[in-house]
Every structure is written in structure tokens, then in C-alpha cells.
Amino acid sequence: MVVRRKKKSRYMRGTRTCGWGRTGQHRKSGLRGGVGHAGMHKHMWTWVIKYCPDYFGKHGFTRPPELIPKVNSINVGTLCAEAESLLRRGLAEMKEGKILIDVRKLGYNKVLGGGRVDKPLIVVAPSFSKSAIEKIKASGGEAITVR
Known about the structure:
Mean pLDDT: 91
Strand content: 15-25%
Largest sheet: 4 strands, mixed
Low-confidence stretches: none
Order of helices and strands: HEHEEEEEHE
CATH class of one domain: Alpha Beta
Distance between the termini: 91 Å
Shape: elongated
Strand order of the largest sheet: 2-3-5-7
């Protein structure tokens, strides 16, 4: 038979350590084995094996940043809007009634398909997006890929 009696009060009025034994047991991080990743190669090693087996060691490699090609892109809508200005400044030329723009001269290496194209343009670039090619051809122009 279960003994039914009133539970002892857990209010620790006037106790200095509030149930934590010596004062230092509830101070800083000694109770938890250290802060953060402290002890990962020592007393927390079993935790590491179970939950973070790839925590230590080298994995993969980082590609040298100078080998990663930098993509500097411009939208066809911007090219179309700036076409007259480029003609005046000598950065574009008229060819067969169309405006020839070499985006490499402008410092770009890719043409994207943002914006509207309402003039026939001949655009020379190292790379194009699919939508850019479609818009240039739909306006009666050409997209010429050059390496």
C-alpha cells in the first residue's frame, strides 16, 4: 500500500546553495564538462563518435579562387536601352541596319534575358542564356558566341 502523506516543501528558504551542494557546483561550466566544443577529443569523445563522426579531419578541398571564372553579366533589355548611347560613344556600330554590340568591350562576359528587346541587335559575347538568345532572335537580331 502506498503511503499517502504530504510532500516535503521544495522551497529552500534561507539556503545558500539552493540544492547544488558546494557553491562551485552551480557556477560556470565545470558541471557540464566545459563550454562549447571543449573536451571533444577527450571526455566527450563518445559523443563525437555517435553524433558528429566527421567533426575531425580534413574533408574535400577548396578550389583556388583565381581558377573560378568570374561571371560579369548584363541583361538584353539594358543593351537595347543603351544601344543608341553606345553608338554615339563608338562602343557599338551599325551593320546591315542592325546595331552590333560586342559586350567584351563593355567588360561583360555573359548576356542574360532580362528586359525587352525592341530593336534588331547583333550581340557578340562569350556566353548567353537561353532566354537572351530567344529574345534577340525574336527581335530580328543575332546572338554570336565567341570564346
